[in-house]
């Protein structure tokens, strides 16, 4: 029975009636269902059994088990309510949605659009630290004329020290524009150029502001670098050569001119949180600052020096900030140094190593920074690189970027491009700055991290995982294709330094060149850090990565090695024939001549679990001609069979790392299934282009696979689009019953996916989704789906199959397909075996993100794969006959073998739709890590032996380990909770019958210390030694560092049987 507050609208005499025949559910196979016309509005409902309130159910597993289920409709709708009496799960289906109808309607064509691209986002950047590049005017080496006679503590100039000004300037860059252009550069990015406090610190701790991040005057070029007119001259000269100029800018901090007194007595060296000491207005009323972010001046509290936990005061009243409003100390956060606790308030409100942190929530700061940078836009700059964006509140960025963007448009500079710096390796954490503001992009730290790992010879599957995350950036005005990508920088160090342990000089050089090939051949805008083209390596990060291009006077640098082992020396470094410079020039020329390598879609073709070949195709949507790119990070030649996108085609080689010869074939051919054989020499990149202008062809199948699942946050809207062909899938959404579709964005290739921000939609809102896919044959197919905000009302495909409107139209999203499915009652495929459409072998959603299927099999030797979308166009197997799950998930891979020894043996299959890993319990047992992190990982509460918070549940698959070796298992948990101590142990078979803590004991737990939030925990379980270890890393990082080892507790707090 459906009991609800809309029952009287359905013909019942009262609402919440547990016995009304008008809402009585009827048996349909194993399910119960009822179609009810529900009016527009906000409603609540439950399922009630036996005509009374003794037994009732809400939505399972998501917080509504005991409560009413919310339902919000934008228009009247007929809904089918579906109840599973075994699991007690409730499903919801709008009857007007037919999931199997793929006909494109006239209104659908409004959704067909090109993936987002930006005309100004096709650059090859050259990132210059101005002071270290070239000295074009020795008269400005000491900055202001008044400081000319002083010592370095006053003017900051000491070319013999890494920590002081060396003399490079804007005129020096102008003199070397031909050199920069010769590298194929199309955009120059300058470090911050505004006037800085010349020197901060005293004695051995003193250093100069040569890097540009200690600003005192936001209106004037630093006199060490030149004048405002010099900057205008540079912009003009660069534009005349067809190059753009980008400013590196700062909005959230200034030089350290404010002293913090009082408070906790630390003089600002320690952070004081709002919880410890809230802000106070001039009347002493406490408030939280984030509550006023984005408000106008009339609403913002009035402040004075007593409003802060510390008392702010200027250390030297003679040192003035420009513009003058920056001299008001109440426009700064004044809470002490940041703790750099990702997710914590000090990241936004703390001083950056003592630099005075502006209160960017304050409307005066928003207005002031807008005026400052609008005036610099007027200089004719082409864009901004924005420093430390994750240390500023999002409300500031929403206002500031929109205003600057609008000003640029009004000045006729609609292509003005802004990209931010947020040090994080996770696309999920980086993408909001582009998704929710008018920033055009962010620096791709995730690429940098994985590219370095690749260049060192790491697992090429990590690149596949990296680019799978590109969908986080796909919106109507952002795309991963426009992300600036890089290999190293002035903070973390140079690529040459990061490769210092990767072989001898000759090998390091080849790995450096391979890294640059990856940089230029993959999606994004490549950024070359000045000096990398000359083979600079340096001795580390920060000032050890900021060598002079002109003849240096730093004696330590004279003896440094270049990446190839040669000595740095005493001369200048503007050699266009340097090995890395030649590689960069060749790659830039290749991009210029082949548009697909600049803005074309990138479609994954091959990756492996170790060093070896990484391959992908690039296709420009207008030309539709395929480029097949393959890079080998192993030291020896590797060969592989793979699928290209163009069948029955000839390809010609258009690029190879030519400095090392022509060992790869000069041409390739594909068969009628587009299969080809690729050979790539060690540490080499090759590019093949289809001959004779032949275009990609081929059809795809599949569509949306969302049928009532929960929507929350940035909700993933996924498809089963498959087939070995190029395609574009366009996404739209609307509230159920609305007429107009809202365009979400366009994704390319298989498994098309987009993320929909549903934070502004109320719980219970039913949302429709529509996709239109256009394939290589220009065939258009549509698909339809729906989700529900905040509550899981997913419909089992077996229930869908009994609905008249969708009969014979719905196919499972993923199935176990093998040589045993005939015995399950399957009828398709090969006489029932290898059936990609069989509902009896369907893998169904688990709340952890895994899909599962429990099948009963008789004894025998079996083989299987995973088929998706109801066909073999997209299936997943193994890389070889290896046993590791990390070798699984290979498109069109090999069959996986297993053995069943008992009669009517229940075998559970597991498949992850994002990583495509899979295994079953006949291959190895299920191993999980129950503990006190369960709630943070969204493990269900009060079910499967978990507690009321979702902790200590051995059946929760969110912590499931997969096999990584003969006797080792591992997992990476990205949703690390807040800092603190947590307990965990190893459990087998989703139960407590067999579990392990330290020393292999079942009566104790491991202690895991989380030092900061926003990290990833990577666990490794050795089944032989019965030892669990773990490491921590930034989100998306491929490099990890050891943390605390297991610690025994006195007693177990795990739930026992």
From TrEMBL:
<dbReference type="GO" id="GO:0016853">
    <property type="term" value="F:isomerase activity"/>
</dbReference>
<feature type="region of interest" description="Disordered">
    <location>
        <begin position="137"/>
        <end position="157"/>
    </location>
</feature>
<dbReference type="Pfam" id="PF22058">
    <property type="entry name" value="X25_BaPul_like"/>
</dbReference>
<dbReference type="Pfam" id="PF00128">
    <property type="entry name" value="Alpha-amylase"/>
</dbReference>
<feature type="compositionally biased region" description="Basic and acidic residues">
    <location>
        <begin position="139"/>
        <end position="155"/>
    </location>
</feature>
<protein>
    <recommendedName>
        <fullName>Glycosyl hydrolase family 13 catalytic domain-containing protein</fullName>
    </recommendedName>
</protein>
<dbReference type="InterPro" id="IPR017853">
    <property type="entry name" value="GH"/>
</dbReference>
<dbReference type="Pfam" id="PF02806">
    <property type="entry name" value="Alpha-amylase_C"/>
</dbReference>
<feature type="domain" description="Glycosyl hydrolase family 13 catalytic">
    <location>
        <begin position="127"/>
        <end position="591"/>
    </location>
</feature>
<dbReference type="InterPro" id="IPR006047">
    <property type="entry name" value="GH13_cat_dom"/>
</dbReference>
<dbReference type="GO" id="GO:0005975">
    <property type="term" value="P:carbohydrate metabolic process"/>
</dbReference>
<dbReference type="InterPro" id="IPR013783">
    <property type="entry name" value="Ig-like_fold"/>
</dbReference>
<dbReference type="InterPro" id="IPR006048">
    <property type="entry name" value="A-amylase/branching_C"/>
</dbReference>
<dbReference type="InterPro" id="IPR054409">
    <property type="entry name" value="X25_BaPul-like"/>
</dbReference>
<dbReference type="InterPro" id="IPR013780">
    <property type="entry name" value="Glyco_hydro_b"/>
</dbReference>
């Amino acid at each position: 029975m459906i009991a609800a507050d809309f029952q009287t609208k359905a013909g019942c005499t009262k609402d919440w009636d547990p016995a009304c025949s008008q809402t009585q559910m009827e048996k349909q196979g194993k399910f119960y269902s009822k179609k009810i016309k529900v009016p527009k509005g906000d409603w609540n409902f439950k399922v009630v059994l036996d005509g009374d309130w003794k037994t009732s159910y809400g939505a399972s597993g998501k917080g509504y088990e005991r409560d009413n289920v919310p339902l919000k409709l934008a228009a009247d709708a007929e809904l089918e309510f579906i109840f599973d009496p075994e699991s007690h799960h409730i499903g919801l289906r709008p009857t007007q949605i037919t999931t199997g109808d793929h006909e494109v309607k006239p209104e659908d064509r409004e959704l067909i659009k090109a993936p987002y691209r930006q005309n100004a986002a096709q650059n090859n950047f050259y990132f210059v630290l101005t002071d270290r590049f070239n000295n074009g005017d020795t008269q400005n080496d000491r900055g202001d004329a008044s400081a000319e006679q002083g010592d370095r503590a006053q003017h900051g100039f000491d070319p013999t020290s890494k920590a002081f000004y060396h003399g490079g300037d804007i005129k020096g860059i102008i003199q070397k524009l031909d050199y920069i252009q010769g590298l194929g550069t199309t955009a120059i990015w300058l470090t911050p150029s505004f006037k800085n406090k010349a020197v901060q610190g005293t004695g051995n701790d003193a250093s100069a502001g040569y890097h540009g991040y200690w600003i005192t005057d936001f209106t004037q070029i630093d006199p060490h670098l030149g004048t405002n007119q010099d900057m205008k001259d540079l912009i003009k000269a660069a534009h005349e050569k067809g190059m753009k100029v980008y400013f590196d800018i700062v909005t959230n901090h200034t030089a350290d001119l404010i002293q913090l007194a009082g408070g906790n007595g630390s003089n600002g060296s320690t952070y004081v949180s709002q919880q410890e000491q809230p802000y106070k207005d001039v009347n002493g009323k406490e408030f939280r600052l984030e509550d006023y972010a984005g408000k106008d001046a009339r609403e913002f509290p009035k402040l004075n020096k007593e409003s802060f936990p510390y008392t702010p005061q200027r250390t030297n009243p003679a040192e003035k900030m420009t513009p003058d409003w920056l001299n008001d100390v109440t426009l700064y956060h004044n809470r002490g140094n940041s703790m750099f606790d990702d997710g914590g308030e000090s990241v936004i409100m703390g001083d950056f190593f003592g630099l005075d942190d502006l209160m960017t929530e304050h409307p005066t700061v928003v207005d002031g920074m807008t005026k400052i940078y609008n005036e610099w836009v007027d200089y004719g700059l082409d864009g901004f690189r924005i420093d430390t964006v994750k240390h500023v509140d999002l409300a500031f960025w929403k206002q500031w970027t929109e205003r600057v963007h609008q000003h640029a448009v009004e000045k006729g500079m609609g292509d003005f491009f802004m990209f931010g710096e947020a040090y994080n390796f996770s696309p999920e954490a980086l993408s909001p700055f582009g998704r929710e503001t008018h920033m055009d992009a962010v620096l791709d730290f995730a690429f940098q991290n994985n590219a370095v790992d690749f260049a060192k010879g790491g697992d090429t599957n990590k690149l596949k995982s990296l680019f799978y995350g590109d969908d986080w950036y796909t919106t109507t005005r952002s795309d991963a294709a426009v992300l600036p990508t890089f290999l190293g920088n002035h903070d973390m160090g140079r690529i040459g330094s990061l490769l210092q342990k990767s072989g001898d000089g000759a090998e390091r050089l080849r790995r450096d060149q391979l890294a640059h090939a990856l940089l230029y051949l993959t999606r994004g805008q490549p950024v070359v850090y000045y000096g990398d083209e000359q083979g600079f390596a340096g001795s580390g990060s920060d000032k050890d990565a900021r060598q002079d291009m002109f003849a240096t006077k730093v004696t330590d640098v004279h003896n440094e090695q270049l990446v190839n082992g040669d000595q740095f020396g005493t001369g200048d470094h503007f050699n266009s024939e340097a090995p890395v410079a030649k590689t960069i020039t060749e790659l830039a020329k290749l991009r210029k001549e082949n548009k697909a390598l600049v803005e074309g879609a990138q479609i994954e073709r091959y990756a492996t679990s170790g060093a070896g070949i990484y391959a992908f195709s690039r296709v420009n949507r207008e030309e539709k001609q395929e480029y097949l790119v393959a890079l080998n990070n192993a030291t020896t030649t590797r060969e592989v069979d793979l699928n290209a996108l163009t069948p029955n085609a000839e390809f010609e080689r258009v690029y190879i790392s030519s400095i090392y010869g022509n060992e790869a074939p000069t041409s390739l051919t594909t068969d009628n299934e587009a299969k080809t054989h690729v050979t790539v020499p060690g540490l080499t990149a090759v590019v093949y282009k289809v001959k004779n202008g032949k275009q990609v062809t081929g059809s795809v199948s599949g569509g949306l696979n969302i049928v009532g699942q929960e929507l929350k946050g940035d909700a993933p809207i996924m498809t089963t689009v498959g087939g070995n062909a190029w395609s574009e899938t366009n996404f739209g959404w609307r509230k159920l019953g609305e007429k107009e579709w809202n365009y979400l964005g366009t994704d390319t290739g298989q498994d098309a996916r987009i993320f929909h921000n549903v934070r502004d939609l109320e719980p219970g809102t039913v949302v429709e989704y529509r996709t239109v896919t256009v394939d290589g044959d220009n065939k258009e197919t549509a698909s339809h789906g729906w989700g529900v905000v905040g509550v899981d009302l997913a419909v089992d495909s077996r229930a869908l199959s009994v609905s008249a409107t969708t009969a014979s139209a719905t196919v499972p999203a993923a199935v176990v397909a093998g040589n045993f499915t005939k015995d399950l009652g399957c009828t398709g495929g090969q006489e029932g075996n290898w059936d990609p459409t069989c509902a009896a072998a369907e893998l169904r959603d688990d709340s952890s993100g895994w899909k599962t299927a429990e099948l009963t099999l008789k004894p025998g030797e079996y083989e299987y794969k995973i088929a998706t979308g109801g066909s073999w166009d997209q299936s997943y197997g193994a890389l070889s006959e290896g046993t590791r799950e990390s070798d699984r998930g290979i498109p069109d891979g090999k069959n996986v073998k297993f053995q069943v020894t008992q009669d009517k043996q229940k075998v559970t299959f597991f498949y992850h739709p994002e990583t495509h890993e899979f295994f079953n319990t006949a291959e190895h047992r299920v191993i999980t890590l129950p503990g006190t992190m369960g709630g943070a990982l969204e493990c269900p509460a009060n079910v499967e032996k978990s507690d009321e918070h979702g902790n200590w549940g051995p059946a929760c698959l969110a912590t499931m380990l997969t096999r990584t070796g003969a006797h080792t298992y591992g997992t990476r948990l990205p949703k690390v909770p807040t800092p603190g101590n947590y307990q965990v142990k190893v459990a087998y078979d989703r139960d407590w019958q067999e579990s392990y803590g330290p020393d292999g004991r079942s009566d104790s737990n491991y202690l895991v210390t989380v030092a900061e939030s926003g990290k990833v925990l990577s666990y490794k379980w050795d089944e032989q030694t019965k030892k669990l270890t773990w490491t921590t890393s930034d989100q998306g990082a491929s490099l990890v560092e050891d943390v605390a080892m297991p610690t025994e507790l006195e007693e177990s707090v795990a739930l026992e049987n």
